[in-house]
Description:
- With about 325 residues, this protein is an alpha+beta fold.
- Helix content is about 15%, strand content about 30%.
- Strands 4, 5, 6, 7, 8, 9, 10, 11, 12, 13 and 14 form an eleven-stranded mixed sheet that branches. A three-stranded antiparallel sheet has the order 1-3-2.
Amino acid sequence: xxxxxxxxxxxxxxxxxxxxxxxxxxxxxxxxxxxxxxxxxxxxxxxxxxxxxxxxxxxxxxxxxxxxxxxxxxxxxxxxxxxxxxxxxxxxxxxxxxxxxxxxxxxxxxxxxxxxxxxxxxxxxxxxxxxxxxxxxxxxxxxxxxxxxxxxxxxxxxxxxxxxxxxxxxxxxxxxxxxxxxxxxxxxxxxxxxxxxxxxxxxxxxxxxxxxxxxxxxxxxxxxxxxxxxxxxxxxxxxxxxxxxxxxxxxxxxxxxxxxxxxxxxxxxxxxxxxxxxxxxxxxxxxxxxxxxxxxxxxxxxxxxxxxxxxxxxxxxxxxxx
Length: 322
């Protein structure tokens, strides 16, 4: 018989979800059988799988020891240590993800990704103890494509992850981008609306001025910050978040991003020797309109990246980026 006390990070979730995370080698059919036959109890009593756990609850297990075997080596220890931290507190990290770094593992990148670097950093600092965290793992709250740089949010605990995901979903965080574009958009500030459709086969999108069947509304706000030599530096605030929205929408109005090989001007890119798209998620502002729990202290605060490779002090700096 073994007892496990529910921690703050494990609380607030269904029992069956917790057990599935805690005992990865246990078949679900066996898990439900253990619950039916009282081989797993909550606070000394038989319990239904859909009950929600609270901090301090005690789970009692009369199950095989093999399910309790702990992992002693961790994949995240293979990841690099380099992290560019803009802000850190006991709940979150704000990271400046560089171009070329991938956020999550996939078939090609599985040993050195941003999320694994975060786990290694927290483990090395003693803030993440996988041997005692039965169902929670620190996680990234948003992602940025490999070929785009910018601010990525990481949650250190379960409450921060739940709250931040809700804030992102309900658009209580303003996300600002810098981009360098061909020409100078007119007017110098505008809120654009259009309609967006995606071709899953080619991973490209098409922007329409009038809605067609299956299209989704997009809203893109831009401000021209600087113009020189037929090029401009723009700040973009996303009111919606669709695939390739900034790249495709700016190209649609005749001002494609420099270095963009998918929606841009390839001849101009070659002339400028631009081999990567000039797009950076450089600023976040927290505008909470609902309770934020442990993140309440962030409300109203802004965080920004000081050095963007194609901009300097609010000015376009293409020569400095080559």
